[in-house]
Amino acid sequence: MGEGFQFIDIILFAMIAAFLILRLRSVLGRHKDDGRAPKNPFSADKSAPPAEDNVVQLPDQSAPNEGVHFDQIIGDDPENEPLSPALVGFLEIAKIDPSFDPQEFIGGSRAAFELIIEAFAQGDRESLNSLLSDEVYNNFTSAIDAREEKEEVLENTLIRLVSAEPIEAYLEDTNAFITVKIISEQVNVTLNAKGEAVDGNSNQISEITDIWTFSRDLHSRNPNWKLAATRSLD
C-alpha cells in the first residue's frame, strides 16, 4: 500500500517538473536577440520580440496608421487653426508610408541626438557613419580631424534633453525630411594636450538649441533615418 503511494508521488513530481521545464523554455525562448547589435533609434517597435526564422511581418500598406493622432503630436486644432508645416508634412509622409508614426520618430530623434553628440565627442567615426548623411558625416569628421591634429580632447556631458519639437516636415520626390528643434543642457569643454581648457568651461551648464533635419527615402528597404543637416541658434 505504501509503495503504491510512493509510486503515485513520483509520477506527480515528474509531471510538475515537466510543466516547469516547459514554462522555463517558453520564457527563455523570448530572448533570442541577446548579443545582437543595438537597434537603430528610429526603429518602430523596440520592445517587440524578434521575428522567428526568416519571417518578416510587413506593415499594412492599405490604410494610414489610424492609431496615430497627428494633431495631438503637434498640438494643432484643425477646426480652429491652420495645420502646422510639421503636421502637413507628417500627413504627406503617412500617405506614402502608412506605418510612419510621428511619436516613434520624435522618440527616435531624441535617442539619435544623444548617440550623435556622444560619438562626435569621442571621435567615433564608425557610429557617426551609420547615423549621418554623407555631407554631414564629412563635416563632422573634418572637425574631429582638426581636433585630433591639435591633440585636443572634447569633453561633453549631456545634462538634460529639455525638448525635441518637430517644426517642419516635407517631401522631395520619395525622400522625407523632418526638422526637429532640440533644446538640451550640456557641459562642453575642449582640453589641449596638457589638459588645459582652451574652449568652454567644465563648471558651466549651457542651454543649447540645435535645429536638426533627418531624412529617409520612403521607397527604400532601409528603415533608418539619417541626420541630413544641422544648424544651431547658439
Write up what this structure looks like.
The chain has 234 residues and is of the alpha+beta class. It has a domain at 85-232: Nuclear Transport Factor 2, Chain: A (Roll). The chain has helices spanning 2-28, 70-74, 85-96, 102-122, 125-131, 134-149, and strands spanning 153-172, 175-191, 197-200, 206-217, 226-232. A hairpin with a 2-residue loop joins strand 1 (153-172) and strand 2. Helix 4 runs antiparallel to helix 5 (125-131) and helix 5 (125-131) runs antiparallel to helix 6 (134-149).
Give me the number of helical elements. Answer: 6
**First-to-last CA distance:** 88 Å
Q: What structural class is derived from the secondary structure elements?
A: alpha+beta
CATH fold name of the domain at 85-232, please? Nuclear Transport Factor 2, Chain: A
Strand content: 25-35%
- Give the SSE string: HHHHHHEEEEE
Helix % is: 25-40%
The level-1 CATH class of the domain at 85-232:
Alpha Beta
Radius of gyration: 25 Å
**Number of extended strands:** 5
Largest beta-sheet details = 5 strands, antiparallel
Low-pLDDT stretches: 24-38, 46-68
CATH architectural group of the domain at 85-232: Roll
Give the integer mean of the pLDDT values.
Answer: 79
Per the principal axes of the C-alpha atoms, what is the gross shape? extended
